[in-house]
Design a protein that fits this description.
heterodimer; A: alpha/beta; 16 helices; B: alpha+beta
Chain lengths: 399, 50
C-alpha cells in the first residue's frame, strides 16, 4: 500500500498520512507544491467548509443488523434475526469498490455485531486492497476469534464499553463487562491500536474518570465518547439514559481533565460539538483540528445493512433512496441529503452563533426526536439558554 | 512561489460506525502546540510524495 493518498478538493486537496495517521487539508498553493493539479475543481474560488466535499472522508457501513446482545439503548435496534434483505459479501465488495473510486479514505465497520460475519476478514482485506483503511467497532461479546484473526487488517479496533462492572449492565441492560474486558485484553495483547467506545449517559457520566483510568491500565490507545442518540431502541430509553444539561455543560472540562491525568487520547463524536463550543474555545483551533459538528452527507456517509445510503448512521433513508454501491451519482445531486446539507438555513440562536459554521446546528437526530429535525439541537447549552430567555420575555398586551 | 498553507489536520482514524469522531486532545495544549506540529506535518506530506 502506498504511504500517501490524496484527493483534489475545491479548496485544494486532502492528503492522507499513514504515520502519523492523519488527513491533512491543504490549500491550492500547497497542493500545487506537492505536484497535485486541481483541474476543473479549481476553476471557481473556494474555501474549506463553503461547500460539500467531493466525496466523504469516511463511510460507516452497518454490515449486519444481527446481534444477540439486545442492549437497551441500541441505536440500530439490532436483533438476532437482523434486518430483512441484508447484503452479503458480494454486495459489500461492490460498495467498497464504489467508495474507493470516489476517494473515500476510511471505513468504519459496525452493526449489529459484524464480528460474527464469516466474511468480515475478506471485507477488510478488500478495503485494504482498494487503498482504504478499515476500522471496526465490536461489542467484544461475540466473534472475538474472528476479530483476533483479522486484527492486523484494521487500522483501529474499538470495543463498546459503556461502564465498568455493574454500571455496564445498568447502561446496556446486559451484564457483559467481564467478557468485553476479556476481549480488550486479548486484542491489546496482539495489537496497539485498540480503544473503547463509551456511550455517555447520566448513569456513567460520573465514572468517566474511572473509565479513563481503566483504559490507561489496559494500555489502550484511545477513548471515544459518544452521545446517546434517540434512535432504534435508544429512542424509548432516551428519557431515562440521556445526560442532564448540567452534565453536558461539564463534559469538556471533565474529559480534558481525564485525558491530562491519564495521558490518553480522547475523541468525541460529532454531536458533542455544541457542548464543546459552550466553553468558547478558539474557533481557529477547532477549525485547524477539523472539529466539526454535523457533517453527515458531507464528511461522512453511512449505509444500512440493506445497502441503503444515509447521511449518517442515525439518519432515516434519504427520500431519493440511494444505494451505497451507487453513491457517486447521488452525491453530486443538489438535493442529496438535503436535511443535513441544509444546515446553513438555521434559526436562532444558531444563526447568530459564531460557532455555527463549525457546529452546523448540532445533532439532527436529537432535534428530530424533539419534534423538528431542522431545528437547533435542543440540548445545546446555547439553545437551552436562548429558549429560557424567550420564555421569560414579558408579554405585552394592548395599550 | 508560495508553498501554501495547511488548513486543517484531522488526526487518527475513526472506528466508530455511528458518528464522526474528532480528537480533542489538542485542546489541552492549545494552538501553540498545533502550530509546533504543523511544520512536521508539512514536511511529512512533502517527503511521502516521493
Amino acid at each position: 500500500m502506498s504511504e500517501r493518498r490524496s484527493r483534489i478538493e475545491h479548496f485544494g486537496a486532502i492528503v492522507q498520512l499513514a504515520r502519523p495517521r492523519a488527513l491533512v487539508f491543504v490549500d491550492r498553493a500547497r497542493a500545487r507544491s506537492l505536484g497535485l493539479r486541481g483541474g476543473a475543481a479549481w476553476d471557481q474560488r473556494g474555501t474549506l467548509g463553503d461547500r460539500t466535499l467531493s466525496a466523504p472522508l469516511e463511510a460507516h457501513l452497518q454490515l449486519t443488523n444481527r446481534c444477540e446482545v439486545g442492549c437497551t439503548g441500541c441505536y440500530t435496534g439490532a436483533s438476532p434475526e437482523g434486518a430483512p434483505r441484508e447484503w452479503g459479501l458480494v454486495e459489500w465488495k461492490r460498495a467498497i469498490d464504489e467508495l474507493a473510486r470516489m476517494g473515500v479514505f476510511h471505513l468504519a465497520l459496525g452493526g449489529g455485531e459484524s464480528a460474527t460475519l464469516p466474511w468480515l476478514g475478506e471485507i477488510a482485506a478488500h478495503a485494504r486492497a482498494r487503498g482504504m483503511i478499515p476500522n471496526l467497532t465490536t461489542s467484544g461479546l461475540y466473534g472475538l476469534d474472528t476479530v483476533l484473526a483479522y486484527a492486523p487488517l484494521f487500522g483501529q479496533i474499538n470495543v463498546s464499553l459503556d461502564g465498568l462492572g455493574a454500571t455496564y449492565a445498568k447502561v446496556r441492560g446486559v451484564d457483559g463487562f467481564a467478557r468485553a474486558d476479556a476481549a480488550l485484553a486479548a486484542l491489546r495483547a496482539i495489537k496497539k491500536e485498540i480503544g473503547i467506545n463509551v456511550v455517555v449517559t447520566r448513569h456513567n457520566f460520573d465514572e468517566l474518570g474511572a473509565i479513563f483510568a481503566y483504559a490507561r491500565a489496559r494500555r489502550l490507545r484511545e477513548v471515544e465518547l459518544l452521545r446517546l442518540k434517540p434512535s432504534g431502541r435508544g429512542a424509548a430509553a432516551y428519557a431515562s439514559l440521556a445526560c442532564t444539561q448540567a452534565q453536558h455543560r461539564a463534559l469538556l472540562p471533565s474529559i480534558l481533565a481525564g485525558a491530562r491525568r491519564h495521558k490518553l487520547r480522547v475523541r468525541v463524536d460529532c454531536s458533542y460539538v455544541p457542548m464543546i463550543a459552550h466553553h468558547a474555545p478558539s474557533r481557529d483551533l477547532l477549525a485547524s483540528l477539523a472539529v466539526y459538528g454535523c457533517t453527515a452527507g458531507d464528511f461522512l456517509v453511512a449505509a444500512k445493512a440493506t445497502g441503503a445510503a444515509t447521511a449518517c448512521s442515525f439518519a432515516p433513508p434519504d427520500p431519493l433512496r440511494p444505494r451505497i454501491d451507487q453513491l457517486a451519482s447521488h452525491w453530486e445531486r443538489p438535493d442529496a441529503f438535503a436535511l443535513n446539507r441544509g444546515w446553513r438555513a438555521a434559526d436562532e440562536p444558531c444563526r447568530s452563533c459564531t460557532y455555527h459554521a463549525l457546529c452546523r446546528g448540532g445533532c439532527k437526530v436529537v432535534s428530530g426526536h424533539a419534534g423538528d429535525s431542522r431545528a437547533p439541537d435542543p440540548e445545546c447549552p446555547r439553545v437551552v439558554d436562548h429558549r429560557r430567555r424567550v420564555v421569560r420575555l414579558p408579554v405585552v398586551t394592548g395599550a | 512561489m508560495s508553498k501554501g498553507r495547511i488548513l486543517a489536520v484531522k488526526w487518527g482514524v475513526n472506528p466508530n460506525s455511528s458518528s464522526l469522531g474528532v480528537d480533542v486532545t489538542f485542546l489541552l495544549f492549545g494552538a501553540a502546540a498545533l502550530a509546533a506540529v504543523t511544520p512536521m506535518i508539512g514536511a511529512l506530506i512533502r517527503w511521502r510524495k516521493r
